[in-house]
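Annotated sample (chain length 580).
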Amino acid sequence: MSLIDPGAPDLLAGLDEQQRLAAETLLGPVCILAGAGTGKTRAITHRIAHGVQTGAYAPNRVLALTFTARAAGELRTRLRGLGAGGVAARTFHAAALSQLNYFWPTIAGGLPPRVLPGKAGVLAQASERLKLRLDKAALRDVAGEIEWRKVSGLTLDAYERSAHSRPLPGGLGASAMVSLHHAYETLKDEQRRIDFEDVLLVMAGMLDAEPAVADEVRGQYRFFVVDEYQDVSPLQQRLLELWLGPRTDLCVVGDASQTIYSFAGATSEYLLGFGGRYDDATVVRLENNHRSTGSVLDLANRLMRGRPGALELHPATPADRGEPPVVTEHANDRAEADAVAAEVAEQLAAGIPADRVAVLYRVNAQSAALEQAFSARGIATRVLGSSRFFDHPAVQRAMLELRSVSQTPRREPLFQSVSDVLQSAGWTLEPPKAGPAERERWELLNAIVELADAAPDGTTLRGFVDELFERQQAQHEPAIAAVTLATLHSAKGLEWDAVHLIGLSEGLLPIVHARGFDAIDEERRLLYVGITRARRQLGLSWSASPGSDDTPGPGRRRAPSRFLDELRSGIPGAASRSAR
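Output written by the structure step:
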């Protein structure tokens, strides 16, 4: 007998066959191998909501885990829309920190240690204590080395044994690096502070050592879902196993071809070895791509074919081949940036919205020439990962004003209420023709207006403002009407109608410091992530010279990326196209 209300919506109606199989498999160990664009988030959110709707899950007994606040916010938004708003969707760190703050007074007594906002300050003090001279870039690299040690589950003694065989940052030898780690930990203890990795370590230690803590946590959460499981580190895997205990109601979803954080301790071994750890595991493959055209997918498949865990992507609409990707060579970086800006201008003139166009690159430094080229053409750009939407003063002022106005009930439609308030903050129906700073402010305010315009009928101003502040807490940012400039790492999980991949030359992709098969293969996966961000149009380009005033030495030339050479034969006419 079904427990579903006959009048309830059929949550599985819009899923394809593979997604539906994943959503209907509610109990026991489940591994969903989900290729790029195959609707993994749709599958797991509908799976959770279906479990709640059928009574298989009590909402407060489900914990959905992911790796970024943005992804967790997206999960919460989708689950709420599917009637499963009572399900907790958090990052590993947020879940662990909540538990740590709850149990610390009982287990350790007093208030828990404060979490460092970053490692740089304490590391600078530690380097001064050791009389080491490290600049900001070196301190960032050392912070990354500390994070790698901790998420890899290495004690300081174990790290000391491995440090001699690792490429260490800042020109430091193994002995100096180990001393710096020791000094950093000592300073943290003196200041009664912990870092983000310590949150996981301390919580894992508490669960392992205190049966009462483990029993209470396992009594709270019975069903676990882990998104982006290919990015899990040994420390996160250990914590997950402690949360689970002897139970096996675990669903993981991931794609080994999108493992791009190995340098930070992530490994796809847990994803690929899931079936070996659980004999009764159900493994579901999502390979029907609902995002990209056949031409884009052909390129992605060609790049990854034969790699461990690689999935063969098939277009959900086979007849939609789309435009073939284009490969272009340029004389230098500036010419490449100018040409990409010109091509994007044509795409915008053809009707593609600016927020559906992205230019992706390997390192942050590549954005400077692009920003200059787009600014010269009057095209608004947004550098992903620079200043966050909700941190902008204009957005913060607008939200405070909206909150103030929302305290009084209003009868007019939501759009009118919001637009009236934001007009007093400088928003107008038409974008200004002034400089880039004023245009940026207008775009930010207009994003809030568009959210109001897209809100469900009957949404009150008070409800809309509450949703805005929830978005702020989760860093679930709205789309801005500007072309996105982003590194390949920051583009993961996103998609655009038109994508331009630049800098596909040796030394940039693969990056110059990538040595050995594993490091080069990670660079391959980065390119795969970039290719699969494109829905309909994809351009790939490289330049033969840096072409800047500070180029060391005359006649310096680059070679095209080895990956580009592999792909050219799959792109009609690509081998001969040049813009030089």
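Annotation: The two ends are 70 Å apart (CA to CA).
Annotation: Confidence is low (pLDDT under 50) at residues 549-555.
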